[in-house]
Amino acid sequence: MAKGVMKGRVVKLGDYVNTDVISPSRWMREGLDVLRLHTMEAIRPDFYKDVNPGDILVGGRNFGCGSHREPATAIMKVLKVSAIVADSVARLYFRNCIAFGIPVFGVDKISKMVEEGDEMEIVMGTDRVTFRNVTRGGELTSPALPDTMGRVLEAGGVYPLLKERLAKRPERRR
User: Fold this and answer.
1) 73-98 per-position pLDDT tens digit
2) Per-residue model confidence as pLDDT tens digits over 5-21
3) Residue 151 vs residues 24, 56, 66, 135, 155: alpha-carbon distances, Å
4) By the 8 A CB rule, do 32 and 5 touch?
5) Interatomic CA distance for residues 77 and 100, integer angstroms
6) Which residues pair with 89 in a beta bridge?
7) Which tens digit of pLDDT belongs to each residue from 137-146?
8) d(Cα 49, Cα 43) in Å, to the nearest integer?
9) What is the DSSP letter of 174?
10) Using an 8 Å Cβ cutoff, are 133 and 118 in contact?
């Protein structure tokens, strides 16, 4: 399991933030640098200005619902979001975040515990993950991510993990 502590400023979003809102189709073919300027624009026009490297996105219910859009996950790496925490996360979006090496957590009532601009601390332990509102107080916990997901996160995503594993393999003789 990935272990460690993350701290970041909360950027708060609502319920049912879907992948069409995260990465509007009109801009997806333009590349991630252009898409960054339009991320979440339907619900928060200046999102790209509001989010800073290291921030923690906090959403409500069913964050990342909708179609499978890889750019909706990849853009979080471009924005350098340190983690995504929501009351619940759509299964496919959750898996895509892990594959990209983005820590993501579904924690019931997390959106009630924090407000925009609060500082949040996430402590990833062996058996549980603890979420603390450093600004106002309050704490919630969830079970630790499964070991396989933790290894993917520690490596920075699926592709870096595969590169790491391939580099460790002995060369085959022909």
Assistant:
1) 999 999 999 999 999 999 999 999 99
2) 999 999 999 999 999 99
3) 31, 21, 27, 31, 6
4) no
5) 8
6) 63
7) 999 999 999 9
8) 14
9) -
10) yes
